[in-house]
Amino acid sequence: MALEAACGLRPQLSLYGSDYPTPDGTCVRDYVHVTDLADGHVRAVESLLAGGAPGAFNLGTGRGYSNREVLAAVERVTGRRVPSVPASRRPGDPPVLVADASRFRARFGWAPRLSDLDTIVATAWEWLRRWRGL
After folding, report:
1. Rounded to an integer, what distance in angstroms lies between the CA atom of residue 80 and that of residue 6?
2. How many Å apart are CA 12 and CA 83, to the nearest integer?
3. Per DSSP, what are the bridge partners of residue 29?
4. For residue 8, how far is the Cα from the chain centroid?
5. pTM above 0.85, yes or no
6. Is 65:54 a contact under the CB 8 Å cutoff?
7. In whole angstroms, how far apart are CA 102 and each of 73, 93, 109, 124?
8. How far apart are CA 112 and CA 117, in angstroms?
């Protein structure tokens, strides 16, 4: 949605909550690149097909970014301003959600390779520009 606001496909982005107990008051989330996520899933499926035991795992970088940090990354990568408006917190939204992928990393040797925030934004921006013909 931030990218859509940056390129004018939506008028603005609602920034839900500015009073969370986080460094800048906005929610913090762990973002993982879709390619890294797919790599993790492939490793898990290959293990299952080879007779490995199933399990429940988290995939993520172990590092969170606030909503304001995401907006700054979008503006930095695209060179465009993201129009945003403050909005009330959404019910049930926790202040911080960051994955601990250490069990998955230990079992499958997986590590995110493309999941720094600027790379995530840059590849999403490229996809959106191609998809929408921008």
Report:
1. 6
2. 5
3. 65, 97
4. 21
5. yes
6. no
7. 26, 24, 10, 26
8. 12
- The mean pLDDT of the chain is 95
134: pLDDT strictly greater than 80: no
Q: Which of 73, 83, 89 is nearest to 125 (CA)?
A: 73
Instruction: Give the pLDDT score at 131.
Output: 84
Runs of H (alpha helix) within the chain: 2-6, 34-49, 67-78, 102-108, 117-132
**The CATH number, out of the four listed (3.40.50.300, 2.60.260.20, 3.90.25.10, 1.20.1330.10), of the domain defined by the range 2-132:** 3.90.25.10
Residue 12: how many other CB atoms lie within 10 Å: 12
Which helix (H) or strand (E) covers residue 30, if one does?
strand 28-30
Judge whether 40 and 59 are in contact, CB under 8 Å: yes
Percent of the chain with pLDDT over 70: 100
The pLDDT tens digits for 64-118 are 999 999 999 999 999 999 999 999 999 999 999 999 999 999 999 999 999 899 9
Which residue is listed with tokens 């879709």?
Answer: 34
